[in-house]
Every structure is written in C-alpha cells, then in structure tokens.
Amino acid sequence: MSDLVAHQSGFIYNQEERARRDATAWTLVQGLLAPIQFVVFLVSLGLVMRTLLTGEGADWAGWSVVLKTFTLYTIMVTGAIWEKVVFGQYLFAPAFFWEDMVSMLVIALHTAAVAAWLLGDQWLSLENQLWLALAAYAAYVVNAAQFLYKLRLARAEVVAS
C-alpha cells in the first residue's frame, strides 16, 4: 500500500512507519510509562480529592501533583522522540496532531498547577490550587482516551492489513 493510499484510507501508519514503530525501543518506553503515569494519576487524584474534601494532606497532594507532572513531562519528551523516529518530526505529525494539541493543554495546566502549588497563597488559595490540579487531570483523562483510541485503531489496522 502506498503512503498516500495508507494515510488517505484513514490508516495511522504506512508500512514504513509501522516498521519503524515496531523496531524502536521508544515504543516499549511509551508502553511502560503510560501505565506508570496512570497509577501516579490515580494516587494523586485520591490525595487531591482528600485534601479538597477534608483539608488534610495538602503537602502530600501538592507533591503528588509535582510527581504527576514529572511523569507527564517524561512521557511527553520520550513521546516526542518516538514521534520523530516513527514520523520524522518531534510533534504534530498528522497522525497524532489532535492528540499533540490536547497534550499541549495538558502540559500547560499541569505546569500551572505546579507553579500555583510552589507559589502557594501568593497566587491561588489552596482550594483553587486543588481545582486547577483537577482541571489538569480532567484534560489528562481526555488526552489518555485519545491515545487509547489511537492504540485501538492501530491494532485494528494490523488485522485489516
């Protein structure tokens, strides 16, 4: 199948891209980091909700947001490398354009949440810091769903090709 036909047919990968995806260690790195990030997200979500509901554990909640943001940055940097290897550009390859766009929002919200926590009440109250973290997490869930959908499509492509 030619590259043009593959992409116009709605396929995510042409044959060469699929081969590069399957050959690079960055695919495994992404496959390992994604569930780690999700576990960190779940723990942090629980800590943020606990603090929001009870007022207790603000330091734990804040540090968990920092850890979640660190895991996000890690998966984004390694994901950009993966995208470069597979598609020839670091971000916004046509096959993952919208996922990358939402990822930018996710990064911005996570970064703002960390900045708000580090600045403390100078910028936002604790309650508003927690709501900002939840907004970042909501955007993360949307982005994770986008990537899971693409993973499902990619698996269906293997069967169809």
Q: How would you characterize the overall build of this protein?
A:
With 161 residues, the chain is mostly helical. The protein has one domain (14-160). Helices cover 83% and strands 0% of the residues. It is built from 6 helices and no strands. It has helices at 3-8, 15-23, 25-54, 58-87, 97-119, 126-160. The longest helix is centred in the last third of the chain and has 35 residues, at 126-160. The relative contact order is 0.13.
SSE topology:
Elements: H1 3-8, H2 15-23, H3 25-54, H4 58-87, H5 97-119, H6 126-160
Helix pairs in contact: 2-4, 3-4, 3-6, 4-5, 5-6
Distance between the termini: 9 Å
Query: Which class do the helix and strand fractions yield?
Result: mainly alpha
Low-pLDDT stretches: 1-8
Number of strands: 0
Shape: elongated
Q: What is the residue-averaged pLDDT?
A: 92
Question: Largest sheet, described in full?
Answer: none
Radius of gyration: 18 Å
> How much of the polypeptide forms β-strand, as a percent range?
under 5%
Q: Helix tally?
A: 6
Number of domains: 1
Residues in helix, %: over 70%
Question: How would you spell out the order of helices and strands?
Answer: HHHHHH
Key structural traits:
mainly alpha, 0% strand, single chain, elongated, disordered N terminus, 161 residues
